[in-house]
Structures are given as structure tokens and as C-alpha cells.
Amino acid sequence: MPFCPECGTPVKVENKFCPYCGYKLEPVAAPQQRQAAYPPQQAQETIRVLIPNLMKSKSLGRTDTYNLIVTNKRSIFAKLTQQIMNETVNKRRAKAEAEGKGFFGKWKAQMQGFNTYTDWYADKTPDYTLGETQGNWAVENSAISNVRVNESKDEESGIETYYIEFTTPTGKFDFSMQYDPHEMLAKAYGGVMR
């Protein structure tokens, strides 16, 4: 059985595109002329961009916060939990203490933990991140057909909110955030970014 040269998924001889990643397949020689096909070595999944603090609306004005980990293959939406926040803050405080920083140095390191939790994922594989918390999920990058950003400014407070919509064959996913995501999203998704 042949395999997709892009992702290694077994494919049928008559497939023109990989059913898993959508890669355009080359025609395979007739069965009597074929040699045994072996799965290619899997390309390592690497993180391209990490976008923190995406807010997903829930009922009664509540929200869940996600960090978006975009790899060379997929986009992982990782739910930010209280445990992750606490452990990140504690690691930053311990690092500042090990570096000999005083009270204000430790406080500053701890406060940085409240803003982003991206360093939590530095030593974790994408598969680990996906399975780490109930509610984490992923979408293949090839399945994202459009990423749209709209912004709104509250006239009273002057606070800008950015609304992000991801379009996939299974539906649309909406998030909001408090800082401009255009540059990071363009780096992650390029041509599908609007």
C-alpha cells in the first residue's frame, strides 16, 4: 500500500489527494510495476507561532482563555487552567530567586506570569499539549480556509478588542483578544489571513 509523501498516511492507489492532509498525490505505477512502498520518515512537528490569551465566550458573560500553538502541521487550542497559571508563576519566581534577584525582581518575574503563559509550552511536545487538558483541541492547518480579524474600540474606556474568526470545513471558531494579533496570525497562516 502506498503512503502520502507529506504526512505518511496510507492512501489508495486511485487517490488524487491525501484524505488526511490534502497533499496532491502523484499517480502510482500499475500494480505489476510497483515496488514495495514504505512509509516515509515523519517530519518532526515544530512550533511556528504561539499566540496567547485568546478568549472564548461562554454563557452569562464568562470566558475561557486559550493559547494557540501553531505548528508546521496543525493549530492546537490549549485551554489555560488555574494549575498552568500557578505553576508558570511559581517557575518564574523560582528562576528569579535562583538568579539572586531580590523582592522586586521576584515580584516582577511573577507579574510577567500573569500576562502570558507561553513559556509553559517551551519543553512540551504538541501531542503532550493536546492531551494535557480536557477541552484542548486541534485543527489541521490545511483545513483552515480563512482567518479574519475585526476590531472594535470602546469609546468610553478606549480599550480595543480584536475578534478573530477561523473558518474550517466543520464550522467557524470565534475568539477575542485585547491586543493586535495581525502580525502573529499572518506569520502563522499567511495566505488565508484577512
Question: Would you kindly provide a brief summary of this structure?
Answer:
The protein is an alpha+beta fold and 194 residues long. It contains 4 helices and 7 strands; from the N terminus they run βββαααββββα.
Q: What tags apply to this protein structure?
A:
single chain; 194 residues; alpha+beta; PH-domain like; four-stranded antiparallel sheet; three-stranded antiparallel sheet; 4 helices
SSE topology:
Layout (H helix, E strand, L loop, with lengths): L46 E11 L5 E9 L2 E6 L2 H17 L4 H13 L10 H7 L4 E4 L5 E8 L6 E9 L2 E7 L4 H8 L5
Antiparallel strand pairs: 1-2, 2-3, 3-4, 5-6, 6-7
Describe this structure in words.
It contains 4 helices and 7 strands. The protein is of the alpha+beta class. It has 3 domains: 34 residues; 103 residues, Roll (PH-domain like), CATH 2.30.29.30; 36 residues. The strands form 2 sheets. A 4-stranded antiparallel β-sheet has the order 1-2-3-4.
CATH superfamily (homologous) name of the largest domain = Pleckstrin-homology domain (PH domain)/Phosphotyrosine-binding domain (PTB)
Major sheet details: 4 strands, antiparallel
CATH topology of the largest domain: PH-domain like
Number of helices: 4
Coarse structural class: alpha+beta
Question: In order across it, which strands form the biggest sheet?
Answer: 1-2-3-4
Distance between the termini: 40 Å
Strand content: 25-35%
The total number of structural domains is: 3
Uncertain parts:
30-36
Percent range of helical residues: 10-25%
Number of strands: 7
CATH architectural group of the largest domain: Roll
The residue-averaged pLDDT reads: 80
- How does the overall form come out from the CA principal axes? globular
CATH class of the largest domain: Mainly Beta
Provide the gyration radius in Å. 21 Å
Helix and strand succession? EEEHHHEEEEH
